[in-house]
Design brief:
It is found in: Membrane. The strands form two sheets. This protein has a five-stranded mixed sheet. It has one domain (about 5-150): Leucine-rich repeat, LRR (right-handed beta-alpha superhelix), CATH 3.80.10. The protein has one helix at about 5-35, and strands spanning about 35-40, 55-60, 65-70, 75, 90, 95-100, 115, 120-125, 135-140, 145-150. With about 150 residues, the chain is of the alpha/beta class.
């Protein structure tokens, strides 16, 4: 093998390892989400692989691209590093009982749809939309008890 072939092989191996590490990060974040929520019986998240969970979709690299938990009666909070799901394109959690602060979501650079309305959130970060260059649809409530942090 000549040097260019070895370099190409090393580059492909590195890309493969980076994709694997990123998908493992997604799995860790999703396990944290599972731990922070009280799921109802119709939300089956028993498989160790979040890509096989109900209402969760992944791409061919096992990166989470969609979470659509709509009207499931889910309670709990969103973990602080939830915004690290960098390949997430659709986040629909509307009509549940999720409470606490909306975490920093600035790492969701591919997010196109954000629907968090009809929950019990009490505050948003000042940089809620920072980094969301692909965002096309946003649905949020502004209940009397929600504080919008200003920068």
């Amino acid at each position: 093998m000549n040097r260019s072939h070895i370099f190409l092989l090393c580059l492909l191996l590195l890309i493969s390892l980076l994709n694997f590490a990123a998908s493992q990060d997604d799995a860790t974040i999703m396990q944290s989400l599972k731990s922070s929520l009280k799921l109802t019986s119709d939300v089956d998240w028993s498989n160790p692989n979040p890509c096989k969970w109900a209402f969760v979709h992944c791409d061919e690299s096992n990166r989470v691209t969609r979470i659509q938990l709509i009207q499931k009666g889910i309670q709990g909070t969103l973990p602080p590093y939830f915004g690290k799901l960098s390949e997430l394109m659709v986040l629909e959690l509307f009509s549940n009982k999720i409470s606490g602060s909306i975490p920093d979501l600035s790492g969701l650079t591919h997010l196109q749809t954000l629907n968090l309305q009809d929950n019990l959130f009490n505050s948003t970060p000042k940089n809620l939309f920072s980094g969301m260059n692909s965002l096309q649809e946003v649905y949020l409530d502004n209940p009397p008890n929600m504080k919008i942090m200003r920068g």
